[in-house]
Structures are given as structure tokens and as C-alpha cells.
Amino acid sequence: MIKKLHLQGSAKEIGFEHGSKGKQEVINSLETYEKLFYGFKKISWSEAKEYALLHLNAIEKYDLQMVEEMEGVAKGAGVDFEDILTLNARSEIALTNKGNIFSDGCTTMAITSPIINDTIIGQTWDWTALQKNSLLLLDIQAKSKPRITMVTEGGIIGKIGYNSAGVGLCFNALITDKKTNEIPIHLGTRAVLNSYSQAEAISKVANGQMAASASFLIGYDDGDGNGMAVNPEVSPYGIDYIGGDDGWLAHTNHICSSSLKSKLKDLNDLRYEDSILRKKRADQLIKEGVAAKEPINEKTFERWLSDTFNKPSSINHFQNENAPEHRKMETIFSIIINLSNRRALLRIGQEGEFEEIDTITELTL
């Protein structure tokens, strides 16, 4: 299904285990992004590394342990530190104005109080089929931080998941015309998962700290039956919250914030026939479920994330043969996270059963 790695210790030790035990997945990621950067943007790998190094000073000030963990990954996998840094800055490199701009897609959804007692978040992750062989399921126990369950690409130390404190993250790429040399958004996702509360998580991505733009759907359950989900669109210009006042959220891959639209240009060339339609379909499914007063639970999310209405540009996404080559993507995995129960379900690919990936309670480190 997916390679699972249990990682613990110092930042360098966690990184080394990631790199050594997940070496093939790291190599797969390096090969994929070298092809993508050159094929779509005419950027060589050496040029990509130069772009990535522009972020290093900001990362060192933001969280030096992230640098140490990436150093560990590089040593474990037998590659250069700059290679791993480049993987973690791959969205920022993809968002440069040279060549075809490309980025991964997805549909995120959340349901919480007052609709249901639990806080459940979930998403599809749509990207190039090449990266299906790069997936890793990481169980991370760092010193003085919550325990993390995360699905990521080999070599990338931050992505989608949840932690033992009840903080969870789903993530949508946004394609815009501006970026800075601040913190790559994938490192922002790790900072969120390192947090003990929703407020702490938001503080890690607000105030223009992120180098590029993205939608961070951040759920939180405090363990006492209190839960909430918020959806900040983050950017180099700060954040803006989107929806959520009625106990549900949905987001895809276009900017929704009027405030951010005044500062950024949305460059998603398929937003009308793909991203916006997926968002409207996700809204429709949630509203139908709420109106029917049906029980909404993990099974409901399985159905929603498997939806093929408007195929191939459906929530469960299939390659669109009419799309430009750099925008052909499919659902690589789908994940459902019940933050109230600290459990998650995962499906690799577009078909088959969702399987539980409860790493937080299955093993005591």
C-alpha cells in the first residue's frame, strides 16, 4: 500500500531515518522533479538548487531544526543537502514566471460543530502519476513536539496529516504571480503539524511568513469534545480566512479571498473548468448531506472523496487528455482524518478501500 516509517529522536536522527529507510522514495522524488522542472520550465537541476538556496537564510531563522532534519535526510539517502532543500522548495520553484507554471491540485473538505460532534477533515491529492511511487507514511516523534502522522513525498519533510495534540492539516496549492524568499509552503505545513493548538498553527503561517500562496485547512480538537476547522489562504501578503461559519468547509485550487485577489493574480489556467467546478461540487455534496440530516462520518467522506461527477475534472480526479501536459494530473491518494478520535483513513489511487493508518495509538515510542 504505502511504506510506513517510524521516526524518532533528534531532528538529524529523524531525517537520517527518513532518508535511509525511504531512500528509493527520495530518489524517485528527485528524478520526478528534475524531469518536471526541465520539461515544463526549462530549469536545470543546478538552477533549481540555486532557487532553493535563496530560502535558506529565512528557514534558518524560522526553525533551525528543519535545516538539520533536511541535512539528515540528505545524509541518509546519500544525496546533497541542496537536493533535499530543493524538494522542499519545489512549489516555490514551480511558481516562478519562467516556463509553464505547474502545481499539484486537490479538493479539501471539513465538517465540525454544529453539524456533527466530531471534527473531520479530508482531501484528495491530485498530481503526476510519477509520484505515486514516492509516497511515504511517516510516524514522527520529535523531542518536545506532538507526535505526527503524515503522508508525504520522499524527501519532503512537511505535508498532509495530523498530530497527537489534535491539530490536522489538509492542503491546496494556489498558483499565483508572486513569491518571496521566505519560508517554502511545505515547511509551513510541517510547522503547522508541529503545533499544539490551532492558534499556534496559524501563527506559523501568518504575517507574510510563507514564500508562496496556498490554502491551509487546519482542524483542531482539544480532546475535551471541542473542535473547529478554519481555512486560511496564506500568502506572502498575510492570510485571509475562507468560509466555515456554518460548520463546514471546502476548497480547491483557486483564490477565494477578495483581499488576496487584490494583491495576487490567480494563474490557474484551468480554474473555471476544473477547480471552481470541483469546489461547487464539494459545496453541493456537503449541503445535500446537511439538508438531508443524514449522519455525516468517515463513510460519508469516503463517498464524497470518491465522487466522479464531471469526470475527469471530478473530486476523484482523472487525467484530462485535453489539458496541457503540465496540468495533467490524477488523484494519487485520498485521506480522511477524524481529529476527535485521532485516527485517519487512507486510499492510494482512485479505486479500492480506505484503510486505517492509525500510527499515533498503535505504537508507544
How would you describe the overall organization of this protein?
This is Peptidase C45 hydrolase domain-containing protein. There is one protein chain. By secondary structure, this protein is an alpha+beta fold. It has a domain at 103-356: Penicillin V Acylase, Chain A, CATH 3.60.60.10. Helix content is 34%, strand content 24%. It is built from 12 helices and 15 strands. It has helices at 11-21, 23-41, 45-53, 56-62, 64-77, 81-88, 90-94, 185-193, 198-205, 258-261, 271-291, 298-305, and strands at residues 3-9, 105-111, 120-127, 135-142, 148-153, 160-163, 167-173, 214-221, 227-230, 232-235, 238-241, 248-251, 330-338, 343-348, 355-356.
Strands, helices and their partners?
Layout: E1 3-9, H1 11-21, H2 23-41, H3 45-53, H4 56-62, H5 64-77, H6 81-88, H7 90-94, E2 105-111, E3 120-127, E4 135-142, E5 148-153, E6 160-163, E7 167-173, H8 185-193, H9 198-205, E8 214-221, E9 227-230, E10 232-235, E11 238-241, E12 248-251, H10 258-261, H11 271-291, H12 298-305, E13 330-338, E14 343-348, E15 355-356
Helix pairs in contact: 1-5, 3-6, 4-5, 5-6, 8-9
